[in-house]
Amino acid sequence: MAGVASSNRQRSRLAPYLMILPALAYLGVFYVVPIYSLFRTSLSTMGGSVYLPTLTFAWEFGNYTRALSEYRDQIMRSFGYAFCATVLCLLLAFPLAYVIAFKAGRFKNLLLGLVILPFFVTFLIRTIAWKTILADEGWVVSALGSVGLLPSEGRLLSTSWAVIGGLTYNWIIFMILPLYVSLEKIDARLLEASRDLYATNRRMFGKVILPLAMPGVLAGSLLVFIPSVGDFINADYLGSTKTTMIGNVIQKQFLVVKDYPVAAAMSFVLMALILGGVLLYTRALGTEDLV
Amino acid sequence: MAQQIDPNVLARLNSRRRFIGGGAAAAAALILGPSFLAACSSGEKSGSGPSAAPSAPEDDGSPATGKLRVSNWPLYMADGFVAAFQTATGLSVDYKENFNDNEEWFAKNKEPLSRKQDIGADLVVPTQFLAARLNALGWLNPISDSRWTNKKNLRPDLLNSKADEGRKVTAPYMSGMVGIAYNRAATGRDLTKVDDMWDPQFKGKVSLLSDTQDGLGMFMLAQGNSPEDPTLENVQKAVDVIREQKDRGQIRRFTGNDYADDLAAGNIVVAQAWSGDVVQLQKDNPDLKFVVPESGSTLFLDTMVIPYTTQNQKAAEEWINYVYDRANYAKLVAFTRFVPVLSDMADELNKIAPDLAGNPLINPSQATLDQLKSWPPLTDQQTQEFNKAYAAVTGS
């Protein structure tokens, strides 16, 4: 019998590993291998024919210097836009998630459904719809123009504002949902307790609600920030020649210029910067253990 | 038949980038990115020379049967044309409008083609420069003259081209002009010169084509340099002017044929445009005008080709022959509104669309044709350098 027990023990020790095996295999094939290939490409030199180039791995760090020096503006712009979009998402999503979590009562599911509803329409169509809404001769522009609120270009479409607005609109759901989940988990008795201790609304928010919602804030801002930095659809449709983001540059390098090493190096620069930013951010918020 | 073409001398004539904002295609590219790259590195061993010269599959003379998969540009087909072809031939057609951009199509399909793997299409419609590149790489099948009996209808000036002498592997599909499209109601005056595009009145309301050859040719001509004899220096000069205007905020966007929406919506007032698109748009907006600038502009030519991975050579040839029937072709021109590649189209066009036969954008005068130049076949080195020079402005 001892043998059976030990084999059971062995099996249960193995179980977790077996359970993550499919995910590991998936990540190995679809993440590690391509990333490795991308990494090699980023340090390669290109030779041979232009159309079927030979990539030779050569520790060519020059690709990285070129990526950084030639496209510094686009990198800075991408981070700037993504930062603005994340802050806007947070400002818009927090009150909404709060209302759904605490005040919506029986309409909670309905409101959540309404939040999700637009996202059944594809990303591309939603973005293109904004082109119509913000068109130079549309009613939004004429309304804003009549109260003197138009940006200096005298238009909305093809400005930085349109791109940031598009990013905010397209990714806000990834802020609302994690925030809602964190807020919804807050024990209502804690709020009662804070009131019993004569906390003002502001103090209750600052000392109880916000700290408990931090995991949601953190998760939400990462989920919005990361895809926003690399996004190129919004800049493509809603932007102009002066709002190019790093995603547009990478796309052009891969598909038109076909300079794969520099394109790959740019992808890595982007990943490294995002990773660095995320690490600093999680450290600053001190919630590593919560994510 | 052997095709001993130096792979470094890849012919390139005209190009037109008709991509719908690049969005969908680009999104797919990003999703496919890693595998695309993995494919790149696996291509390390595949070398760069042309594959074994292709030869058309044995033709036993029997009629074409089965399914034909056609991959064409968006809005490049007449209503009911595919159905009529199916009825006439008994073939079934899987028609897809998924050819959005020459360079992007090439970037995505070159790996399977280099390994001779099916690309999901038996007939595709690249612009002539890309067709010539595919041919030089040995990736096209010859089109059998015995099945392409209507080849005689092809315009004689197109039959012999440096890109494909005697049209053995490419069948021209549509031609057209690059020029300036503008909204007369918004400009308040007629535009005649390239410099008119830089009028401060149109600041932020101008779009240019992102395709290297179609985008730059017109500006090179305006500087007295012909795209017929391009040098990197001349290309760079044109790029410099465009960069200056971009930095001034004059140029709003670099586009594929998505300038059409912006022009119709009033976001763009002056666009570098393709003639056929403008004729189509004029139906809804008679204020739109198209002009070939005084200093001249460029022509493009799209061609039907059969990749050597085709699963149905005979059906593809049947399709080409059907398109080359003047009555059938008139239906296509009546829809696409580009310049016909078949000769003597006036009678057939008069029968179905009398207003079009006399349209100077479909039937340009000799004076206009004299203003239009074509890019010569470029070496792949040139293509790369020119693309890079222009992308430094369009993609940054």
Overview of this structure, please?
The complex is a heterodimer of chains A (291) and B (396). In chain A, helix 3 crosses helix 7, helix 10 (201-230) runs antiparallel to helix 13 (260-285) and helix 12 (246-257) runs antiparallel to helix 13. Chain A has helices spanning 2-42, 62-70, 72-103, 108-116, 123-133, 139-146, 160-171, 173-185, 188-196, 201-230, 233-238, 246-257, 260-285; strands spanning 44-48, 53-57. Chain A contains 13 helices and two strands, in the order αββαααααααααααα. Chain A folds into two domains: 2-36; 71-290, MetI-like fold, CATH 1.10.3720.10. Chain A has 291 residues and is mostly helical. Chain A is 75% helix and 3% strand. In chain A, strands 1-2 form a two-stranded antiparallel ribbon. Chain B has two domains: 23-40 and 64-175 and 300-363, 3-Layer(aba) Sandwich (D-Maltodextrin-Binding Protein, domain 2); 176-299 and 386-390, 3-Layer(aba) Sandwich (D-Maltodextrin-Binding Protein, domain 2), CATH 3.40.190.10. Chain B is 39% helix and 15% strand. Chain B has helices at residues 23-42, 81-89, 102-114, 128-136, 156-159, 184-187, 212-222, 232-248, 259-265, 275-282, 313-323, 326-336, 346-352, 354-357, 366-371, 380-394; strands at residues 67-71, 92-96, 123-124, 160-161, 164-165, 170-183, 206-209, 251-255, 270-274, 288-291, 297-305, 372-373. In chain B, the strands form three sheets. In chain B, strands 6, 7, 8, 9, 10, 11 and 12 form a seven-stranded mixed sheet that branches. In chain B, helix 7 crosses helix 8 and helix 8 packs parallel to helix 16 (380-394). The model of chain B is unreliable at 1-53 (pLDDT under 50). The chains are: A mainly alpha (291), B alpha/beta (396). The interface between A and B is large, with 58 and 57 residues.
